Amino acid sequence: MADRLVRQDVWTLEQDQRFHPVILAYALAVREMRTRQPNHPTSWAYQTAVHWTNEPNPGPFFNQCQHNTWFFLPWHRMFLYWFEQIVRSVLRELPESVLQAFPEVDEQTIATWALPYWDYWDPRPPTATQPPPFKDSLPSSFRATTLPNGDPNPLFEERRNRGRPKKALGDPPISPVAINRGARLPSRVTSPHQALNRPLFVDRAVGFGGPVTSFHHFGEDQIRMAGALELTPHGAVHNTVGGRGGLMTSLRTSPGDPIFWLHHANLDRLWEVWLGRPDPSDPMVRTNPTDDRWRDFEFDFKDERGQAVREFRTPSEVVDLTRLGYRYADVSWPAAPLPPGAVPVPPAPPLEAAMPPAPPPDHPPELVGATEQPLELRGELATVRFPVARPTGPLARTEAATPSRVFLYLDDITGDENPGVVYAVYANVPDDDDDPTNDAHYVGTLSFFGIEDLRDLDQDHAGGLRVAYDITDLYTRLRDQGRWNERQVTVTFEPLELVPAAGAEPGGGELELEEEAEVEDEAVPPVTVGRVSLFLQ
Amino acid sequence: MSARDAGGRPRRSAPGRVRRAAWHHPEWTLALVAVACWAVLVALHLRGGGVAAGPAPGAARASANATAMHHAAMHHAAMHHATGQPPEGTGGWLAAQGTWLLMAPAMMLPSALPAARHVALNSRWRRRQRGGAVFAGAYLAVWLLFGLVAVSVARLAGLPERAGWPLAAALAVAAGWELTAAKRRCLRACHQTLPLPPDGWKADAACARFGLRYGWACLGACWALMLAMAIAGHASLLLMVVLTTIVVAEEGLVKGTRLVGVAALVLAATAATVAVAA
Questions:
Q1: Which residue among A221, A362, A367 sits closest to B123, beta carbon to beta carbon?
Q2: For residue A209, what are the contacts with CB-CB under 8 A and spacing of at least 6?
Q3: Residue B222 lies in a domain
Q4: Local structure of A89: helix, strand or coil
């Protein structure tokens, strides 16, 4: 049996060689695919439309992406697998003149080409300046405007996050926090830890893989709630890389940015990381759904010859990477965040990994408090408070009357436009705390990928988003310390900014787009959170 | 100490399972209302009279090998002959409205159960039934108002008592409506929710507002179907079953908008059957 192809960390390739042959080959394939007819599966436009298109009645091969569902991970794995086959076929068909111009892309590179992944988790704090590069900045080959030979770089995309306009003031006039100038993504955006710590693929509240649905493009069900990995880092990275109006920010356009595919390769890799933790003999080993409704659901794709595929179109066919013929260079557990001044240490699973979770109680979570008025988020720090009452349902009749699970829900989140701003959410930060964003009170990250499509009744989506955070650990810790307020909950929303690229590699800001300096200080489009609520179970 | 199953969960007794089902499905009371309405309608049907009223499709000329729909229509025509007094005037109008009072919950509540469950599970525990009831009350109010108007207009229009063509025409209109973009938009609007405050009159008001909005979207999706029922009156339990199945499938399933083509075919076939039987 032939060796499996290896999907490599793009930053490892970058450090080995700028425009590493694998990345250069990808760039040439993207360039070629953009020249092909949109109705052919090997074209860039076709692949973007497979994910999303607003064309009416597009047929079974378009508009198929799966979000807010337990099909999120397997569908995107299939999407990437068939895209990778197409890229490889495009590379094999490159004209001789192109290959002569780029001799680095040799036969061996093409024969073994596999989609790299962008592992954007960097444990170093925002204040760290050395040693660059930072993995949470966009790989430099995707920021350069030209290829080594001076041709336009197909991997460069101008429509990415330029940073908040107010940060563009001062000297130099071009915003130093633009993603294309090497800015770092905030750790709250890139951290996969919260998702990886979810023990179940499907959970009534918030599972690793998403809720049980049938075919679910984005928001058909009344419960439009992403799984933990889909929310963060998936949605948060989409929003933060794209910013307001960027390709990555919208479901409609995100596959058009070449970094999309490396982002999703990383999510696909994190699925393997989650499954592999901590080791197969541990009772805590994670498992995929065994439900036939998940395993046997069929999706439609076309291969590089334009034929409808007959294999690798159901979740059960793609759960084993051996069958798919590829593996990831690294599926080890990600390192924990480092405090300022600390040095990286080998990654180790947290201690709680050894403790099997108790099965959820029989009774459903009970609402004990909620806001009465919607909250509008406009890119500034925002706080809401609401009273909390004692539970009166089955929980009150249990022996200890102590919840085993505590959830913070954000319901009916709507907005006409994705602001490109992501928020960190905190619970019960004391009023006398100087830092309203106290890490000890961090709940999770809130992003709005797809929000602009939820009002379009001509699409298969309507309504608001719902986000759930399991805050049991926070609740237990504060309660044990006597610091949990039994009568009131305070929730704080902090807009997360790109981290200035201090100490970034020379040339990290290759952009010479002076027009960026003319970005006006525009108001952030509002997003409305219909209700913030606390549930005990 | 309670016994536990292989998954570490307490092994539940039969009462325990019922209690757990009630915890997770607080909309069961509304389901019971719908079932009760169906039961009364079936009982009245079997008794061969009751509150049944309104112009029935003329099926007296039905042939012996007609379809099940045909037989059902014939049964109702025969029923009228048996009673010998097609209801007319105010009494008939009241009887028709009485039938509608049963038909509307029977046919339209099942598709609203997921939304009612959403309301209940997102209400304070002690308000779960109240929230669901306020929601369902507002939702059904939309349909009762529709029935009040539609049944009255159907009777005022003086549609022929023994002719099936008005029903066939209404079903044909319903089939056509299935294929419009407006129908699909309304179906999608049925999946929208509203924020629900936790306590007090604000909670009641939000549940009522949600019910009205849901009812309005549902009315947009199903007005043509229910117009057919307003014209048919008590015409056929089978017709009720067919139309209720369409409503539940379209509104209840995640991809209900994909069923509009099939629904249009079923409605067109039903219209043809009724027309032939007339």
A1: A367
A2: A70, A72, A73, A201, A202, A227, A229, A271, A288, A289
A3: yes
A4: helix
Nearest CB to B193; choose among A364, A461, A464: A464
What are A123's two structure tokens? 């444990």
Rounded Cα gap, residues A338 and B178, in angstroms = 58
Q: pLDDT (tens digit, 9 = 90+) per residue, B216-239?
A: 999 999 999 999 988 887 657 888
CB–CB of A224/A466 below 8 Å? yes
The confidence band for A488, taking pLDDT boundaries of 50, 70 and 90, is very high
Containing structural domain, residue B231: 14-277
- B94 domain residue, yes or no: yes
Please check whether residue B274 is in contact with residue B167, taking contact to mean a CB–CB distance below 8 angstroms: yes
Q: Which residues contact A102 (CB under 8 A, 6 or more apart)?
A: A24, A28, A149
Dump pLDDT digits (tens) for B137-180.
999 999 999 999 998 888 888 776 556 888 899 999 999 999 99
Per the model's pLDDT, the better-predicted residue between A483 and B175 turns out to be: B175
Among B259, B183, B253, which residue's Cα sits nearest to residue B224? B183
The reply to whether A368 touches chain B by the CB within 8 Å rule is yes
Q: Which of B271, B267, B268 is nearest to B165 (CA)?
A: B271
Quick one: tokens of B237?
A: 């339990």
DSSP string, A16-73: H-TT-HHHHHHHHHHHHHHHS-TTSTTSHHHHHHHH----SS--TTSS----SSTTHH
Q: Tell whether B224 is covered by a domain.
A: yes
Q: Which residues of B touch A223 (CB under 8 A)?
A: 118
A169: burial class by Cβ within 10 Å (0-12, 13-18, 19+)?
A: exposed
Q: What structural domains and CATH numbers belong to chain A?
A: 5-354 (1.10.1280.10), 366-536 (2.60.120)
Chain CA centroid to CA A259, Å: 12
Tokens of residue A297, six digits: 């659901």
Which pLDDT score, from 0 to 100, does residue A204 have? 74
**Beta carbons of A443 and A474 less than 8 angstroms apart:** yes
If interface means Cβ-Cβ distance under 8 Å, which residues of chain B face chain A?
A: 7-10, 12, 20, 23-24, 114-115, 118, 121-126, 181, 184-185, 188-189, 191-198, 202, 253-255, 257
B30 and B118 in contact (C-beta within 8 Å)? no
* B9 is a domain residue: no
Cα–Cα distance for residue pair A199/A196, rounded to 1 Å: 8
What pLDDT is attached to residue A516?
46
Confidence at A314, pLDDT banded by 50, 70, 90: very high
Q: How far apart are the first and last CA of chain B?
A: 68
| A471: Cβ contacts below 8 Å, ≥ 6 apart | A406, A407, A408, A427, A443
Q: How far apart are CA A440 and CA A80, in angstroms?
A: 37
Q: What is the distance between the alpha carbons of residues A379 and A417, in angstroms, rounded to a whole number?
A: 13
- Calculate ∠ Cα B9-B12-B16, nearest 5°: 125
